[in-house]
Amino acid sequence: MSPLDAQDLQNTGLLSPPSPGGSSGGGSRRLHKRRLNRSSDEEHYNIPLDVPMQSPAGSHAFQEIPEFLISREALVHVGFSDHRAAFLWNEWSMYMAGMPQHDIDDLQVDFISFILNRLDQQVNTWSDTNSEWRSCLNSYGMSDEFQAAIMDPNFKYLRTSESCHYWTKDTVEMRFAGLQDIQRASRLREASLRQRSTQHGSSGAGPSHSRSGSAAERDDSSARGHRRNRTSSSIQRLGAPGVQLRTMGTASALAAANAPGCTMLFKGIDNARIHGLFSESGNLQDITVLQSSPPGDFSGNQSRYYFSPDYKVAEYYAAYAKRRNSVSAVCIVSLAIPNAALEQMQSTELVRIYWPSEEWKETVWLSRRRQLLPSRLAMVSQATVVIGTIAKRPDEAYHRIQSFNEITENYILKADRLNPSVQFVFHYRRGKDFLEQHAAQTMRVTPFVNSDLTAWLQANGSFL
């Protein structure tokens, strides 16, 4: 938390003082859930801001977070057991003892890279057997809470589409990015406090006096909650340009979105990973944050942009992300591409390959093994857009088979458990240009909140 913001939040009962830290010198705080990140005020709008921290309702209204982003407590937050976190923190401390000084942002990059590198050195499994996954997660030193999130039976089908190492690394990375999002929201609020202090002068006005209204009004909890909603809440939303404000309804309303003459595409992702997608004015700024690193289904050595025309695919991934990281914001990115733009593309620009064709099997098999495609499949690697079936198994599974002819129906994703799911895959350069030209104005980010997760579980329980 930024110092001035922390002081203001403590003065208004929205943040606890730091608890005593351990050997890391860290500790933790309890922060009101509506102040976690730049879209949490909307997600938790039903939690009053004036809930006493020590009341029975306070256990639901406040979230424990680490005092410092680089600490043993942060390792516990991202999912490691107390014992494993202490071990990793000791390793990090020894590593840093021999390193030159860095600025704080560089340290954050070094810290998460150091931790993820430790996971790369461990065992792995992609078996359908739960006990093998539990054994793998235990070898990583993951906490019971983390394991319960990964192993939730409601998501077994999607979980087994990748390996234990993949989901563990993805979840740790996502949770750490969520902490960085909390930090960004705090910095944003602090900048606003400083601006208001400058505008109103510094004659006796500390951070907690920056709220408007008489003394009598400040004593009224209802008025106080309303003012906080007008100030810090609106500041947080301004820090999340492009995010659709939604106080009623569910993200599933996107499934019924109608864009006449256009093809709608969707992608489920956590908010922290799309930081910078939009400018402060709400315009598309950096679409590269939506890139997925290789290997992918249709490219083994280049990044690609992956979307699905099936809302259920994006919803499925968003739901699992929310289940694995309830603290952070999760969203569904949507965009509309004019059908005319797709219809005008040459056959070399837009390629379609589907299961069970040999072209699809060989492309996926080679790409997932990080091998170059042969000349007869060059149209796939060179196309601006490739439309095709989504593959399901982890990269390691493709390394284990000797030929693409061994790929069976078990290697394709069926989000509805019945029909093969389809994806639109855009080239890292030509596809980027195409998206910026034809979809920049229609791209939206819609929050996927806890109520959306609950609705998804209720609607899909019979399929699991």
TrEMBL record:
Organism whose genome encodes this protein: Colletotrichum higginsianum
Record region (Disordered): 1-52, 189-241
Protein name in the entry: Uncharacterized protein
Domain of life: Eukaryota
